[in-house]
Amino acid sequence: MAQSKILLDSNSYFRLARSIHPLLDTVFGENNHCLYVLRELDDEFDRNRRLKNKFAWVAEEEYVANRSKHLTLSRKDRRDIKLGVEFLRQHKTDNALGISRTDILCLAHGQVLDIPIVTDDAVCCRPPRTSISGR
Questions:
Q1: CB-based burial, 97-132: b 16+ in 10 Å, e otherwise
Q2: Is 7 helix (H, G, I), strand (E, B) or coil?
Q3: Cα 60 from Cα 2, distance rounded (Å)
Q4: Strand partners for 117
Q5: Contact present, 113 and 5 (Cβ < 8 Å)
Q6: H/E segment holding residue 11
Q7: Is residue 2 classed as helix, strand or coil in its secondary structure?
Q8: Nearest residue to 121 via CA among 102, 103, 109, 95
Q9: 31: which DSSP letter?
Q10: What domains sit in the chain, N to C, each tagged with a CATH number?
């Protein structure tokens, strides 16, 4: 059975990886779930002094090695993700949302690849309107 991929955003990774190790690239459950993070998580960590201080263990070799396997993307996936990122950045700007560059990228990956995302960010969505009477 193929893997059921699940993408972790950076905050979820920082909160879970130390207590559940190895966290990534380990198949679990009846549906062969497997957790992944984006390569950009390392960039975000390297740029952010607060993250480096609070989560210093992220730089340890065993955790770096655990993050070495990433999602495989086709050219079409990469192109569609780029479009999704552009749309989400504009939506962020238009609505003054406080979402990070890495989280936008994570959302775009989840949408294009049709995989769930584990996040601790609150999202407010309005369900689509449906007609009970069928009209």
A1: eebbebbbbbbbbbebbeeebbbeeeeeeeeeeeee
A2: strand
A3: 30
A4: 7
A5: yes
A6: helix 10-16
A7: coil
A8: 103
A9: T
A10: 4-118 (3.40.50)
Single pTM value for the model: 0.83
Structure tokens at 61: 């070799």
d(CA 42, CA 39): 6
Contact 87, 64 (CB under 8 A): no
* Spatial separation of the C-alpha atoms in residues 11 and 46, rounded to whole Å: 14
d(CA 6, CA 106): 11
Where helices occur in 17-115 by DSSP H, the ranges are 40-47, 49-54, 61-66, 75-94, 101-113
The strand pair at 117-118 and 33-36 is best described as: unpaired
What is the residue-level pLDDT of the chain in tens, covering all 135 positions?
A: 789 999 999 999 999 999 999 989 889 999 999 999 999 999 999 999 999 999 999 999 999 999 999 999 999 999 999 999 999 999 999 999 988 899 999 999 999 999 999 988 765 444 444 444 444
